[in-house]
Every structure is written in C-alpha cells, then in structure tokens.
Fold this protein.
Amino acid sequence: MKLIQTELPEVLIFEPKVFGDTRGFFFESYNARQFQDATGLEVDFVQDNHSRSTQGVLRGLHYQIEQPQGKLVRVVRGRVFDVAVDIRRSSPNFGRWTGAELSEDNQRLFWIPPGFAHGFVVLSESADFLYKASAFYAPQHERCILWNDPAIGVDWHVDGEPLLSGKDREGKLLKDAEVYA
C-alpha cells in the first residue's frame, strides 16, 4: 500500500497495490497492521457505511462534536471529489482544507481523522461511497459547516450549484460553528 501525504499532515491518501488480469482484480482495501504502520494510530473501526448519490450531490461538511469520527473512505463505483477541513481551533492548520479525487479506477482510500469536517461531491453519473468510521454515528452530536464558506474556500471542482440536503443548505459558517478546542 502506497502512502501519499496531503497538505494537511494528518490527512492521508492510501493507494493499494492492485493485482489484476483479464479475469478482474484483487486488492486489500484495509489492513489494520499496514494502517497502523502508516499512521502510527491504532484505530478500532466500529461501523461501515455505504451511500449512493447521483451526479452533483454534495454531502458535507459534516462532523460530530462529541464522539468524533475518524473516517477511512473510498469509492467502489463512480467518481467523487472528497474533502477534509481541519476544525481544531488549536491547530496551526485550522480552517484549511485538502481534497482528493476518489474513484473506482484509482482505488484510493482517504483518511479523515477525528477533528476534521468531511464532505464529498459526486463527479460521475452516480457514485457508491464506502467508509469505515472509528466512532458510532450520533445524530445528536452531528454538526455541519456550510459547504461554500468563503473563509474556507473549498474548490469543489463543480460548475453551478450542487444538490444539497436541507441540513447541508443550513450549515453554519466556520466562524459561527461549534468546533474542537
């Protein structure tokens, strides 16, 4: 598994070694030992999630203020642009973002550690998005930062307005959001 650093040192991209031939392919999408060796973290993933979205759907920027989740995400069908935003007020990178294209073709995995908001936009006709979470979903602690907050300035790689849920349309600006210390 190849490790790729991003502009934010805690956010990582993993590129698995894919073994393929005319019959198809095989790769390890997760190996606890390799993950721990690469990150120095021993993460106990407690929940796997699968979402399907159509082109132009943007989900995010989400996080849980209590029971913060680390997420290891990947796309098994389609293509998305995935984003992590550092929302730890004590961090020198507070308010900075990084992103990566994830697709069924590049097989990349994106690690978003606790303390970061997360979102993605679907670039293909549709996309199936899988993620492992290090804490259980706790809707009472879920928060949302506005996807187009100018203080963050995410380049979502889309033209026009994305398709948003009511929750995502009503996200808060970073300056008004409840964030980590």
Summary: The helical segments are 32-39, 166-169. The first strand starts at residue 2 and ends at 5. Residues 32-39 form the longest helix (8 residues). The mean pLDDT is 96.
